[in-house]
């Protein structure tokens, strides 16, 4: 009897396990572009890395105000000499919160938009403690994220449908409350989930992950700072642009580029370049993200700003590197285009980018 009971228990456990692992595995046969894409470290559409453009995302979080706009103007000057190889100006993405290190001044947002950058939502209040965002309800997320989208659209006079993405404050994702809010309100993507090993020695086995859709709820390693808060339900066609961890000179991981410590301009440049080259030469071409806050530039001698500028100038000389916005990455994912044809890829030649 006991044996029978044990065997039954084992069967039930196996069945449960099968069910759970079934839920966690993205089906590569049915999940096809342009609507669906499984998490992977390989380029889409079977492209070889050498045929794949290397996309670089430069993004800035929090409010855009009288204090920090000068940094942005310095990074992206009028008549910017930094142009992508298709001869259009480079673009960044601003995850904007209304409050958070000063209030956002929306005419600066309008100006950034007019110059070809993308604006996304990073909440109205950016409130503390960070754990508030873990526990926030669906209605809290609507109020904060859709609310900020409305504010951007009304006050900077942007077409509301052009605000397509979000990032959670402190990267504290809010499970199904957050992702259902995005899905119900026709957002295109989230970019809040951190992934990657915690130390540089381990990274050879875990190359960076390409953007993917949430048709299948992500496995815990894809949202590992608060795995309990990974979305558990599917959101077909909603994209995730993951934040692949970076590594400081001490080998320790940091979530966003500005949380690894650097001490000089040269040091900052080397750190950004080494992380970039590490991804570039691992030969997978996943988009490389430099995710920072303007507060990073408030250092003595502003050496971090100098380091970032130098890095952007350096990679701008590479014929296969494109500094594009978050939504432009999604546009490419939906319609993968080889390096040989990329100069004619229309979504990367918006009128605002003065091609
Ligand atoms: Zn923030």
From TrEMBL:
Q: Which InterPro entries match?
A: CE4 (IPR052740), Glyco_hydro/deAcase_b/a-brl (IPR011330)
Supply the alphabetized keyword list: Signal
Q: Any keyword Protein biosynthesis? A: no
According to the record, the signal peptide region is 1-23
> Which SUPFAM superfamilies does the UniProt entry name for this protein?
Glycoside hydrolase/deacetylase
- Please give a single GO biological process term from the UniProt record: carbohydrate metabolic process
Tree of life domain = Eukaryota
Q: Please state what the protein is called.
A: Uncharacterized protein LOC106166970
Which species does the entry assign this protein to?
Lingula anatina
């Amino acid at each position: 009897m006991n044996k029978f009971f044990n065997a039954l228990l084992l069967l039930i456990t196996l069945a449960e396990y099968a069910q759970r692992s079934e839920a966690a595995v993205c089906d590569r046969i049915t999940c096809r572009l342009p609507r669906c894409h499984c998490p992977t470290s390989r380029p889409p559409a079977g492209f070889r890395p050498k045929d794949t453009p290397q996309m670089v995302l430069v993004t800035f979080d929090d409010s855009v105000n009288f204090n920090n706009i000068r940094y942005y103007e310095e990074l992206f000057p009028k008549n910017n000499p930094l142009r992508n190889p298709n001869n259009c100006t480079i673009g960044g993405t601003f995850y904007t919160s209304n409050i958070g290190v000063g209030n956002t001044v929306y005419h600066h947002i309008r100006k950034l938009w007019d110059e070809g950058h993308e604006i996304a939502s990073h909440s109205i209040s950016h409130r503390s403690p960070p754990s508030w965002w873990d526990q926030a309800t669906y209605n809290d997320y609507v109020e904060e994220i859709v609310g900020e989208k409305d504010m951007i659209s009304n006050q900077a006079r942007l077409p509301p449908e052009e605000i397509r993405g979000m990032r959670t404050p402190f990267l504290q994702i809010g499970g199904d409350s957050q992702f259902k809010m995005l899905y119900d309100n026709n957002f295109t993507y989230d970019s809040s989930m951190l992934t990657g090993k915690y130390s540089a020695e381990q990274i050879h086995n875990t190359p960076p992950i390409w953007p993917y859709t949430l048709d299948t709820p992500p496995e815990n390693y894809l949202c590992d700072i608060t795995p309990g808060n990974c979305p558990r339900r599917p959101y077909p066609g909603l994209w995730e642009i993951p934040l692949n961890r970076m590594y400081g000179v001490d080998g320790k991981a940091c979530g966003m580029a500005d949380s690894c410590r650097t001490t000089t301009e040269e040091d900052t440049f080397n750190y950004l370049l080494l992380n970039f080259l590490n991804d570039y030469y691992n030969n997978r071409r996943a988009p490389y993200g430099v995710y920072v806050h303007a507060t990073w530039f408030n250092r003595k001698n502003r050496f971090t700003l100098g380091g970032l500028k130098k890095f952007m100038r350096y990679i701008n000389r590479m014929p296969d590197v494109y500094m594009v916005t978050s939504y432009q990455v999604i546009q490419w994912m939906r319609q993968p285009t080889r390096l040989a044809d990329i100069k004619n890829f229309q979504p990367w030649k918006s009128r605002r980018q003065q091609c």
